[in-house]
Amino acid sequence: AQKITQTQPGMFVQEKEAVTLDCTYDTSDQSYGLFWYKQPSSGEMIFLIYQGSYDEQNATEGRYSLNFQKARKSANLVISASQLGDSAMYFCAMVDSGGGADGLTFGKGTHLIIQP
Amino acid sequence: NAGVTQTPKFRVLKTGQSMTLLCAQDMNHEYMYWYRQDPGMGLRLIHYSVGEGTTAKGEVPDGYNVSRLKKQNFLLGLESAAPSQTSVYFCASSYSSGGAYYEQYFGPGTRLTVT
Question: Which of A13, A71, B31, B105 is 20 to 30 A from A84, comparing alpha carbons?
Fold first, then answer.
């Protein structure tokens, strides 16, 4: 069964607008971690933000925030005031067992293009 | 700190050839991972290691072997390469958890083509 679902293969957004990238997950574990990574066209994987299943507050890192809705099993990434440099692939990922030792399960990604 | 490094960056193999991809990290991380990324897909876990001398299978382990003889190095081997193994390979490492989850630090990737 697919554990991470990203339903937006591609998105076009005007510069300076806010962006929401959708992510839903599936797990029966009570303890899990959710991550977002950015992959620019150069190919490297850049960590953006983390949310733990027991965290009561939504995670924030600069212009990035994670809209965590536990009951709906969603972990959407919000980018405020988008910039041209935000154009990239964005991956939602989860770890739900082994304290992280088992590795991340990734979604298929969303290709975000910021237009001037 | 170099972080996570991978060698080589690019490689072209003929079907049936073998090769080893080397991953090295200088952050004293316990956990190390190998992923592959195919077009239109997220990363998929091949093998992982929770410490020196230990390895385990991930989601797509067939056709690959790994070894972790030193804490800082994690090797991925292809004994008999197949065109289906054409992919970009990423190595990653992270702290051990003690019940918490930590982000993984990724290497720059190795682009492998098998003809």
Answer: B105
- The SS3 assignment for B101 reads coil
Q: Find the distance separating the first CA and the last CA of chain A, reported in whole Å.
A: 39
pLDDT digits (tens, 9 = 90+) for A55-75: 989 999 999 999 999 999 999
**Token couple for A87:** 């154009």
For residue A83, the distance in angstroms to the closest alpha carbon of chain B comes to 24
Nearest Cα neighbor of B83 from B8, B14, B11 is B14
Q: B28: how many CB neighbours lie within 10 A of its CB?
A: 9
Strand partners, B41: none
Confidence of residue B98 (pLDDT cuts 50, 70, 90): low
- Strand blocks (E) in A17-73: 19-21, 24-25, 33-39, 46-52, 60-61, 64-69
Cβ pair B101:A103 closer than 8 A: no
Please return the burial class of A56, using the count of CB atoms within 10 Å of its CB with bins 0-12, 13-18 and 19+.
exposed
Q: Tens of pLDDT along B41-65?
A: 889 999 999 999 999 999 999 999 9
Our measurement of the distance from residue A19's CA atom to the centroid of its chain's CA atoms, rounded to an integer in Å, reads 12
8-state DSSP, A28: S
- Test mutation, A2, A34, A45, chain B, max B CBs within 10 A: A45
